[in-house]
Structure formats: C-alpha cells, structure tokens
Amino acid sequence: MAEEPVIRAEGLSVRFGARTVFKDVTFDVRRGEIFVILGGSGCGKSTLLKTLIGLVPLAAGRAWLLGEEIAAAGDEARRALLRRIGVMWQSGALFGSMTLTENVELPIEEHTGLPRPARSMLARAKLGLVGLGDAAGRLPAEISGGMAKRAGIARAMALDPPLLFLDEPSAGLDPITSAGLDKLIVEIARETGTTFVVVTHELQSILAIGDRCIMLDKEAQGMIAEGDPKRLREDSTHPTVRAFFRREAA
Ligand SMILES: Nc1ncnc2c1ncn2[C@@H]1O[C@H](COP(=O)(O)OP(=O)(O)OP(=O)(O)O)[C@@H](O)[C@H]1O
Ligand SMILES: [Mg+2]
C-alpha cells in the first residue's frame, strides 16, 4: 500500500464574499518532498496555505494534514496538529525588540513546558542549523534580509515539525543569497526528512528545489498545472504554463 500523503487536498474552493479565489484544487504532498505552489500575484497561493492549516474556511472540498482533517478536528486535536507544523509567513516578520534567539524561542515557549535555559539552547541550535549561530544575540534590525529569512526558517523549525510551509522565502533577496537559501531548504529536507511546501514564483528556485509543483492561475480560478517542474518546462502545452516556464510572453 502506498504511504499516506502528508497533505491531501480534495476539491478545495475558497471564496471571499462573492469572489471565488480558486476552486477544485486537488493534490497530494508526499513525505519528504519539496512541493512548490506557484502562480502570479493574487492567484491565491498564500490563501491556499492558510486554508490548508485551517485559518481560511473552505467553501468546498476537504483537506487532511498529517492524516488529520483540520476542519473536522476539535480544539485539542487542532492545537496538537498545529504544533507539528512550522510556518514562515510571507509577511512573517521577526519581533524587532527581541534577539534572534528570543524570536526562535517563542513557539517553544508557547507549545512546551521547557524551562528558559533549555528553550534558549534549542533556539540557538536551530539558528546554528541555518548558519546564524554567531548572530543569535542580535536584534532583527542588526541583520541582513537574507539572514532574517533564515531566522524565520529557524523559528518555523523550532519544534522540529515534520511539515514546513514557507511563503516566498526568497522574495526580495539577491540571486546569490536566494540560491543559498534554496540550498539550505534542500539540505534540511534531505537530512531531516522534513516535508516542505514552498510558495514561490522564482523560476530558478522552482527548478532548483521543486520535486513537484502545482500552478494556480487567477483567471482560471484554480490549478492549471501539476507535476515535476522540469517536465512541465519541457512538455506543457498550456499557454500560461509555457509562458511562465520558458519566460515567454503569453
Ligand atoms: N481575508 C481576505 N479577505 C478578502 N480577500 C482576500 C483575503 N485574503 C486574500 N484575499 C484576496 O484573495 C486573492 C488571493 O490572495 P493571496 O494573498 O492568496 O494571493 P497570492 O497568490 O499569495 O499573491 P502574492 O503572490 O502577491 O503573495 C487576492 O485577490 C486577495 O486580495
Ligand atoms: Mg502570497
């Protein structure tokens, strides 16, 4: 029997008022893979992440995370599930008045009864993992944008979640820093078996890290492609998908 997927999404639809953002979105995410959600601005990528973790209600469809249907889970089960998921939000700023260590400690404090010294030891270990061991005592204003992204990943990883969501981790970074971040994500995935769901529209990143992807489209109000990004680049006949992967005007 095939292993149960880490995420199962079946016919997801989301509406805000009278406006449908997307409908009939169906996909599976397998254990240990880097799954990319791509598409133009406003097509619903961030909304899809929020829907998956139960922050935005579904108009239709069902979603399971780590075997649990979040919309049907009670408060306790939901909290337990969220503890097993790490999220780096698109706007996911660090708290400016707290050091990097204190920022990474936050989810540990919220979800565990660990004493302060143990929390900060764990936090510093996570910062070390993303190459920020030496910057642990700095404030967010004292580090670069790329370092802040890595600190955000460290915070999302604080509780060793088997599933990590990253919403545009490399947006606004220079290509070299962005490539470094891609390398880090691949290393974490391969070394820890963590499953990643990454929202990005950076073609280089998608081709470098994505095992599989789905592409959403605003006009189509849903998915227009699914599969291995390298195959999509070669084989897709959908004009928007081709345009994206081949950098052509549609
Ligand atoms: N809480 C909300 N209430 C009403 N409309 C919303 C809400 N959240 C998102 N939207 C709308 O849903 C659409 C999709 O937004 P979303 O943030 O998911 O797009 P996105 O694909 O992540 O875009 P970007 O690439 O710019 O981050 C947008 O038109 C947005 O204005
Ligand atoms: Mg977004």
TrEMBL record:
Gene Ontology MF, one: ATP binding
Name listed for the protein in its UniProt record: ATP-binding cassette domain-containing protein
Limits of the ABC transporter domain: 7-243
Superkingdom to which the source organism belongs: Bacteria
SMART domains: AAA
Organism field: Neoroseomonas marina
UniProt keywords, alphabetically: ATP-binding, Nucleotide-binding, Transport
Stored Gene3D superfamilies: P-loop containing nucleotide triphosphate hydrolases
Keyword Transport: yes
